[in-house]
Amino acid sequence: NIGEILYISESLKKVAPDIKIILGGHEVSYDSADILKNNPSVDFIIRGEGEKPMKKLLSASVMCADLLNIEKSVKELERAGIDLLHLDIMDGSFVPNITLGFDMINAIKGMTDIPLDVHMMVNNPAQFIDMMNLGKDDYLCIHYEGDIHAQRTLAKIKDKGIKAGLALNPQTPVNCYEHLVDYLDMALVMTVSPGFAGQKIF
Predict the structure, then answer these.
(1) 88, 87, 133: which is closest to 109 by C-alpha?
(2) Which of 11, 20, 110, 151 is the Cys-Cys partner for 174 at CB 3.0 to 4.6 Å?
(3) 117 with 164: CB under 8 angstroms?
(4) 83-109: per-residue pLDDT in tens?
(5) Closest to 157 (Cα-Cα) out of 115, 114, 190, 186
(6) Cα(153)–Cα(76) distance, rounded to whole angstroms?
(7) pTM
């Protein structure tokens, strides 16, 4: 979504003026709106001054997998060379839906070497961290909107040796990342309101 890319880039410009936008291998200024508009399918990455371009990782969601044959699905994803398994946890409170529980997360962790990318769409996520057997290659992403002590929770995740992520709903300003970047290994900017698969992108 080009409009979203422009919005994100302008917001990032305010909080991290040294980052660069790379389109198709070429650096583009923040004001190159016409370049973005004329390239609706551009491949872009954002990197800081002096940093190498970010490695692209493919994270496959198992939200809609056949739960009675989950190991078969996971093994198929292994053979396909997937980099991460994206696992959505919903509590019926932060979002109206309820999905994978912690026993399922731990079972999947035990059946594959693919790192897990756990997206917690829950209120007060800190209370659940110790219920998952995650390791140094796994990501645990909480929602800014679901935790009034996000910094404390992110610090707890990192103290356990897990990679920490922070998700923002589409309506939440991107500058919420400003004071938390030192605690983050991943930033997840939602393009739909969380809670259901198959939604139209904003």
Answers:
(1) 133
(2) 11
(3) no
(4) 999 999 988 888 888 887 899 999 999
(5) 186
(6) 34
(7) 0.71
Spatial CB neighbours of 89, under 8 Å, sequence gap ≥ 6 = 99, 100, 101, 102, 105, 118, 119, 120, 121, 122, 128
Q: What SS3 class is residue 44?
A: strand
The owner of tokens 């110790």 is 130
- Give the DSSP H/E element, type plus range, for residue 89: strand 84-90
Burial of residue 201 (CB within 10 Å: 0-12, 13-18, 19+) is: exposed
Residue 134's nearest CA partner among 157, 156, 152, 150 is 157
Residue 78 to residue 105: CA distance in whole angstroms: 17
pLDDT tens sequence for the chain (202 residues):
333 344 444 444 555 555 555 544 555 554 444 444 444 444 444 444 555 555 677 888 887 788 889 999 999 989 988 899 999 998 888 888 888 789 999 999 999 999 999 999 999 999 999 999 999 999 999 999 999 999 999 999 999 999 999 998 888 888 888 889 899 998 888 776 665 555 555 5
Single-letter code of the amino acid located at 148: I
